[in-house]
Amino acid sequence: MSRGDSSRVTPYGTGLRRRADIIDQASKHFARYGYHGASLREIASRTGVSHAGLRYHFSTKEELLMEVLARRERFGSELVALDELPEEPTTEQAWLLVERFVDLMKMSFSQPGFIELFITQAVFAAHEDHPAHEFFQRRYRTMRAEYTQGLSAIKAAGLLKPGVEPEFAATALIGFLDGLQIQWLLEKKGVDYMEVSRRFMRALVADEHLDQIDDFFAA
After folding, report:
1. Rounded distance between C-alpha atoms, residue 19 and residue 27, angstroms
2. DSSP-assigned beta bridge partners for residue 160
């Protein structure tokens, strides 16, 4: 194999894959047992590495939890892609944002482990001494700002009902989603999360655009 062969496996590449594997297993473990019930030794065992090997990548359980939470947040932000939205979006761009948000909702409910992880850790993080306290404070501040930005763009394109204020609608939307997720986790068969979400979105969108919302949820 030549030195220029890009397919060659390097220690750095192997380390990155091992780190990703650890985060994958930690996500499932934290979702099931919570922060305090989670075991680094068990996560290491499920990943196929030694306890020392896991500690090489993540020296503490707190550090690993923060990476699990941060990776999930990055994925959601990349899917919605608010940073790609121009200051004065066209109607087509505003609709694309709505469609991406609906896709994010669908994706979230397809991964109950992540929902449980975020909901349980958000409750625990209400205590100031919890390692994720600042993370969730920052997360909700960022979500309110991003949702306000997105709803403002949608309003500017004429897609929101008259009287809907983006800042307050953003806070209400976040509260709605968190509450719906808790109810769904407790009684999956009794809560039709997509139908409830569709009806909530219809309450925000102008009447002449309701068919488009229905199409997004039906896709």
Report:
1. 12
2. 205
- Closest listed residue to residue 143, CA positions, set 173, 181, 106, 180: 173
Contact call for residues 14 and 20 (beta carbons, < 8 A)? no
124 exposure class (CB count in 10 Å sphere: 0-12, 13-18, 19+): middle
Q: Hunting for tokens 């709803």 — which residue is that? A: 151
Which residues make Cβ contacts (< 8 Å) with residue 183, sequence separation at least 6? 191
The pLDDT of residue 11: 65
Output the pLDDT for position 8. 56
What kind and span of H or E run contains 120?
Answer: helix 112-124
CA distance 198 to 202: 6
Q: What is the C-alpha to C-alpha distance for residues 36 and 14, in angstroms, rounded to an integer? A: 30
Q: Is 34 left (phi over 0), alpha (psi -120 to 50) or beta?
A: left
Question: SS3 breakdown of the chain: % helix, strand, coil, rounded to 5?
Answer: 75, 0, 20
β-sheet bridge partners, residue 205: 160
List, for the chain, all residue ranges whose pLDDT scores fall below the cut of 50: 1-3, 6
Q: Are 204 and 177 in contact (CB under 8 A)?
A: no
Q: What is the pTM of this model?
A: 0.76
Phi, psi dihedral angles at 127 (to 5 degrees): -80, 130
Residue-level pLDDT at 2: 46
